[in-house]
Design brief:
853 residues, mainly alpha, five-stranded parallel sheet, three-stranded antiparallel sheet, disordered C terminus
Length: 853
């Protein structure tokens, strides 16, 4: 869980630099420090550990006496203890001072440590709360010598998924993982405690190999002690403020200040118990963090107490001032949107997700109550519109559809209700059931026949196959009457599926905004820009759209815009940003109609990086996507075929090329040309092969997409092993949208030649790859793909092979503290397992297979 953080600490300490580890209570500070110490002890460090305890803060010398130092009688003062400890640190060898929870040390122990640090240059690892106001004594100990600060941020969705699987012995489903993340605020200790206690309380049960919630809540009495430990250091006024906020719920700051003092709010925010966010009225709202504290307060008082407090603050919400929206100008600037996304990573996903949940729950409840009082089509449409983004209550949705009278319904509401009814019919009856609903609607309402046909086309193309361009209405939409907005947007979407992005963009730019489905137009435009090779424009457009959707608490818009942006980020090599963006979507849980397929697609995209880099069996986040879907789909990731092929183990390059071309042909037969193009690009980058490259060139030629011409020319030279032509193409290459893909292509081709034992080609490709990387250095991570069998090396064999290209056996042995004969045995085993013909080939293969340590 903390491998990266531990490695950073080892690097710092190796250079004689101390480390201050800071984070919220339960963030893993002690775990990280202990893991680093364990690794340092293996390399010969002697550890001198001092631990602060809450109950010992008033006991003089309690912390340093825990070291067990032998003292002469009558010599137990500050300087006496400091001299003894300093003499131990001065002994031969490498020494490290560990101070865990420095904020809990008594003053006398701090005085001893200050004197010791003035006498010794040994590095120190210290742990402390993130927002703790340090005393002068604590600062005197910390600020001696060189020091790096390591911040432990809350866990994101993928990390919570892995941690829950480790705790429970198996993966949890999407909604369970999202709920645990939401309740814990990404705090590792709380994630573990929630998962453990929920399973003990039978709130989590294992079905079909995954852990799922048996009810609607994860709160149980076993969590009381955990929350009480979190709140132990708070003064009574702060605890009272948290109780008031828990009853009130997420609220605007100006409302909170009427029932909670400004000093209490400042104190809670400073200590990490309050998260501040911008809301959709351009105001500022606050929520308790971690959200599990809310369950604690709401469950520990009587119903009468809660009603009294609600009555006290109820009127204040009605007086909330309305702040007019501010028109924001959009600057078409990629650094700006990427910077905004990176700064957002420091925020709390769980609190933001909880805010979405509360907003959706309040809207759903109030609109359902309004519909029960008056079952009009308008009220039904208002309720069902919530389910187009937020999680669906299928029982309630079916009841609303069946019990609503369609008499005198507004045409827009009538169409919306019918399409929703068709979507509700799909889980049980499939596409045919949904089409039947729409056909019956068209027969009963001839005036809406065009809209019904457009809806049928949309569902059929999204869940079956794309009709040929000459089927139905013509691409130009020529008809007697002007086509409606839904018809126009459906035609644009079909052109996108057919990989005609320029035509899709032309249609959508001429279309009017659709009030019925407001997110369809920006989705087509954003992904059309991406498919046309205008990746930077797509990123700016989609990330701005996502920011607006988050502000408006529009979960439908967040999911659709995040899907578009994720593709742009992944294509550009911004993997950390893409993983955070998708993680923030996963934290909200499975969404409602239509966009649930995009949610599954992002789960597969998130698992794709792991599938291409891992060399060991791990629990993939992609397993949370629904498996009962076809291998092909209208958009990348919607079909599961690409992910399944890449995640398959022990493949040979030639076999991969055959299977990949077979899948692409299947995509083309279904009319899903866009997915076929993206799959062919990815497969060519992973395992360059003739069959896939021929299909890619054909698709690009027939679709009229010309932005990848340099890429296909270079890929052709790579596949045909024309190294002279490859050198010329790379020499005259002009940077375009495929810079990252070409670097990936060269690395993968190099690996393939090494695996096949073609040393001459491998040497030429190694030179070309290094030259290209030097000419176009990338700040983004270069993936080390493992899409086909390369090795089954042990960890030690990997370490030796990674050094074999530039160090002798003796030098490797000295670095790894093993004998030269042992090094020779490891290299021999690695050569036999990988089939590499030389130390250099082995080094190249391992360097391109395993991520750097």
């Amino acid at each position: 869980m903390f491998d990266t953080e531990v490695q950073r600490i080892l690097d710092y300490v190796g250079h004689g630099i101390g480390v201050r580890i800071v984070g919220a209570p339960g963030s893993g500070k002690t775990t990280v420090a202990s893991s680093a110490v364990f690794n340092l002890e293996k390399t010969g460090f002697t550890i001198h550990a001092v631990t602060g305890l809450r109950t010992h803060r008033a006991i003089p010398y309690a912390a340093v006496k825990g070291l067990g130092m032998e003292m002469r009688p009558g010599r137990s003062g500050v300087l006496d203890l400091a001299d003894v400890l300093a003499s131990q640190l001065a002994k031969a060898g490498k020494h490290l001072l560990l101070v865990d929870d420095i904020h809990l040390l008594d003053n006398e122990s701090l005085a001893v440590l200050e004197a010791v640090r003035q006498q010794s240059a040994a590095p120190m690892i210290a742990t402390a709360p993130e927002t703790h106001p340090f005393t002068r004594g604590q600062l005197a100990v910390l600020n001696q010598g060189r020091e790096a600060v390591l911040q432990l941020d809350p866990l994101h969705y993928e990390q919570v998924h892995a941690l829950v699987a480790r705790v429970l012995g198996g993966p949890a489903d999407v909604d369970t993982t999202a709920r645990i993340l939401t309740k814990s605020g990404g705090n590792p200790r709380l994630v573990v405690r929630i998962a453990e206690t929920a399973s003990l309380s039978n709130l989590l049960v294992r079905r079909d190999g995954t852990w799922q919630m048996s009810g609607t809540s994860l709160w149980n009495d076993h969590l009381r002690g955990t929350v009480e430990a979190l709140l132990a250091e708070l003064p009574p006024e702060d605890v009272t403020a948290l109780h008031s906020m828990a009853i009130l719920g997420t609220a605007r700051i100006d409302v909170l200040q009427k029932i909670v003092s400004a000093d209490a709010l400042d104190s809670l925010e400073r200590q990490g118990f309050l998260s501040i966010m911008d809301d959709h009225h351009n105001g500022t709202i606050a929520a308790i963090s971690p959200p599990m504290i809310v369950d604690y307060f709401r469950g520990r008082r009587t119903l009468r107490d809660r009603h009294m407090l609600r009555s006290k603050i109820a009127g204040m919400l009605d007086s909330t001032p309305q702040v007019p929206g501010i028109e924001a100008t959009t600057a078409d600037c990629l650094p700006r949107v990427l910077s905004a996304l990176r700064s957002e990573r420091g925020n709390d996903d769980a609190v933001a997700a909880r805010h979405f949940h509360e907003h959706s729950a309040v809207r759903e409840r109030s609109r359902f109550e309004r519909w029960e009082l008056n079952k009009t089509p308008a009220n039904a449409a208002a309720l069902l519109r919530v389910y187009w983004g937020a999680p669906v209550d299928p029982v309630r949705a079916v009841r609303v559809v069946n019990e609503t009278s369609m008499h005198d319904a507004d045409p827009a509401d009538l169409l919306f209700l019918t399409i929703t009814k068709a979507l509700l019919a799909m889980p049980a009856g499939g596409l045919s059931a949904a089409v039947e609903v729409l056909q019956q609607f068209a027969e009963a309402h001839p005036a809406h026949n065009a809209e019904a046909e457009a809806a049928i086309q949309f569902l059929s193309a999204s869940h079956g196959r794309v009709p040929s361009p000459d089927a139905g209405s013509s691409p130009n939409g020529s008809s007697v009457e002007k086509p409606g907005t839904l018809e126009v947007l459906t035609r644009a979407l079909l052109e996108l599926y057919r990989c005609r992005p320029l035509e899709a963009l032309r249609i959508v730019d001429e279309a009017e905004d659709d009030e019925l489905f407001p997110n369809l137009r920006p989705f087509i435009k954003g992904f059309g820009l991406f498919a046309a090779g205008r990746v930077d424009e797509s990123l700016v457009f989609s990330l701005d759209w996502r920011a607006e959707a988050r502000k408006n608490l529009d979960q439908f818009g967040v999911v659709t815009s995040s899907y578009v942006a994720a593709h742009g980020l992944l294509y550009s090599g911004h993997f950390d940003e893409a993983e955070y963006l998708m993680s923030s979507v996963f934290a909200m849980g499975r969404p409602g109609f239509v966009v649930d397929i995009l949610y599954d697609a992002m789960l597969r995209l998130a698992g794709l990086r792991q599938a291409t880099t891992t060399t060991t069996a791990t629990v993939s986040i992609a397993a949370q996507a629904r498996a009962g879907v076809p291998d092909v789909g209208p958009l990348p990731g919607v079909g599961k075929g690409v992910y399944v092929l890449i995640a398959k183990e022990n493949q040979k390059p030639a076999g991969f090329d055959r299977q990949a071309s077979r899948l692409i042909k299947q995509q083309l037969r279904s009319g899903y040309t866009l997915e076929a193009m993206m799959a062919a690009m990815l497969f060519t980058c992973l395992v360059p092969g003739r069959q896939v490259l021929d299909l890619l060139q054909r698709i690009l030629r027939e679709s009229g997409v010309t932005v990848h011409e340099q890429f296909t020319a270079i890929a052709t030279a790579v596949v045909e092993a024309d190294h002279q032509l490859l050198g010329l193409l790379l020499k005259h290459y002009e940077p375009d949208t495929d810079v990252y893909q070409i670097g990936m292509l060269l690395r993968s081709a190099l690996k393939r030649r090494v695996v096949e034992g073609d040393n001459a080609a491998a040497e030429a490709l190694a030179k070309a790859s290094s030259s290209f990387a030097a000419r176009f250095p990338s700040a983004n991570e270069q993936l080390a793909f493992n899409t086909f069998e390369a090795s089954s090396l042990t960890e030690r064999e990997v370490e030796v092979a990674a050094l074999a290209g530039y160090l002798s056996n003796v030098e490797i042995g000295e670095r790894l503290r093993i004998s030269a004969r042992t090094v020779e045995n490891h290299i021999s085993n690695a050569l036999r397992k990988t089939g590499a013909s030389s130390r250099t080939s082995l080094f190249i293969l391992v360097g391109n297979t395993f991520p750097p340590k």
